[in-house]
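Supplementary material to the annual report.
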Amino acid sequence: MEILLYLIPIALTLGLLGLVGFMWALKNDQFDDMEGNANRILLDDEEDTDEPPADPS
Amino acid sequence: MEPAAISADGTSGRSLSVCAHCGAPTKAGRPFCCSGCEAASAAQGSIDADSAFAVLATDNEDGSHTLTLGVEGIHCASCIRLIENALSAGDGVADARVNMSTERLTVRWLGPRANANTLAQSVTKLGYKLHALKDDAPAQSDQEKRLLRAIAVSGFAAANMMLLSMGLWASTAETMGMATRDLMHWISALIALPTVIYAGQPFFSSAVSVLKERRTNMDVPISLAVVLASAMSVFETINHGEHVYFDSAVMLLFFLLIGRYLDARAKGKARSSAGQLLSRLQGFASIEQDGRITEVPIRDLREGMVARVAVGESIPADGLVQSGTSSVDLSLITGETVPEEIAAGSEVFAGTLNLEAPIRIEVSKASEKSLLSEIVKLMEVAEQGASRYVRIADTAARLYTPVIHSMGALTFLGWWLLMNAPWQVSLLNAVTVLIITCPCALGLAVPVVQVLASSRLMKRGILLKSGDALEKMAAIDSVVFDKTGTLTLGRPELTSIGHNAQNMALAASMAAHSKHPLSAALARAHDAALVEMEVSEVPGKGLQATRGGVTYQLGSRSWCGPETEDAEAALEMWLAADGTPVERFTFADQVRHDARTTVAALKNAGLKVSLLSGDREAVAASVSEAVGIGSFEASVSPVDKCDRLKALQAKGNKVLMAGDGLNDAAAMAFAHVSISPASAVDITQNTADVVFQGDQLAPVATTYEVAKKAMQLVKQNFALAVVYNIVAIPLAIMGHVTPLVAAIAMSGSSLVVILNSFRLTLKREG
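Predicted assembly:
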């Protein structure tokens, strides 16, 4: 039964990791806009600049 | 920062084959990809264009400002891109984000607060309507997040404890040894107690608040069971007892939280529409005062003031036209899509859109007395009434709670007094009764069916907007239809045939340059190539173009048609070459092609179907004839519609109101349940419990059928829960419920309910 001394903490740690990951995602608003994110994957990648789009005028 | 900047990166363009609103490809010659874009574009700049958005901005610590606004009309990925690009192109904008699910945008910028107005305008110019958010909106999503967090914690705890419990169930004190069992119990306690304290809070706080009001709800027995089970288990653990119920308590919380979350999400969609309607009256109007023009808040308009209304602006107050000839889009008030011609002396209503030329109006009613405000007042009354509806789950809870409580109490007293058992044993048995009767299945019975039904309807373009829409829909006994836009498509279609191909191409090419509904219909009906030419719009008259030395006119009979009076009073447009009428186009609002079968299906289902129209007697009669509705009433004003609905409801009828105009909105709020097409005015869509897309009327019947089926399943689920209790309660009372039995019974009953709910999606058409 000594094996339990390792297995239970390991199981709990793994579970906690998952929980912390979920909480992190939730806190970072990743579940805020499921619909929008589903649509955003259809958009082309934006250019890697912080510049606003060029103004033609 | 101008919309033109957006066209530069290719998401939008001026070519005719790209939607002028969202940039999606369109059929050749069509300016828009869909009617949603067309409507959004037509309303462009009309509302809130120059409202004081700066007031709504909040200050951040680093000196930047944040503005969060509701956006209407987002429906595709390019809408997101378009808005975000327009905003990020603005002065000093740090970030801009559109949330599609909640239909809101957040923009943060460095610089003066007043930039809010320019930023907001850059979005309204794209054709999206903006509105201020009500304060309780973020609270809603906070609540959802809290529930999600609680689900995560209880799910984590339930899974880990089940791991430990499996070991406990599979062995006895002899095989495992007392010390190991106690260790497992202590670890369980260590996981369970924080979980119960954290994840149980939604139930505890609700239970405490109802108990303070000396009422009970479902949360009282839930809290009692969870708390007592945990306390009892701690006691057992300390005393080296055999059975602990930590896993039951946590699993209970996990299942119930799922049900609660699904429920909260369904409710989250519903919004108060009256407030939004009022926001139309929150802009500014240009008033002539002492020979100068001043901007006055619309709510401060008084009788006798003279307001100037530019093209594309909504008319700020009810009044009389003083000068100017134009046409107004009355669709907000009447649902009628063909603009009404107005000249000096005509009456105009607040909220309607001035389409063609600037006009001056004399305000005849202060804005709080306008027709629009009156409708708002009616709707507020109706919305208050609607909140009194008691959902079936709450009714069940009301019956269920006293039964559970007395069962628990009787078990305790029975064991203690009759069987002379020690109080610990009596209490343990009473607690198992509470755990086992706990409404796991009951908590899932409604939300699961609700989610499945709404996703099934969603696939067919039907959106449920309120949590109780299905329940209410299943209970209806009569249907009241509006005519324009509901039974009919609400837009004129070309009905005349056999046109000269060259004339048709010419007329359609000219029509493609105008947003007038008749022009749009003409352009829609033409599938061949368009002719390139310069087209100019003659306000209040029509379109004019020159090609090959010939001047073509496309417009009303009075402008370019023959002078003879035609007896046939159809909607028409004339094409004239050098002043000679050459072609006549007639239009009519078409009845939705499946209207007749839908009405028949509803009648077959035993519902009374009737028609309430604001239109003339003859038109209403012909439409009701065409779709097979026996009873109709014509020339009904918005207020009359309300009265009719109120009278029907007072007679005990449960009415489904289907409508699309603002004139229907108040009546829909009074109806038991309401449905509107997605082409409806946004206010009406917000009022409606159900919104459907497309040119078919069949969704009305489909929704009713699905609702019926869903309610049937909900009732079956309740029946299953009752059967389960009839079996489980005696076992619990007799003290045979070990933690293993409790776990099997709880998950088993929940599974049965969920599986039964899934029968809704198994059933094909029907």
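Helices of chain A lie at 3-27, 34-40.
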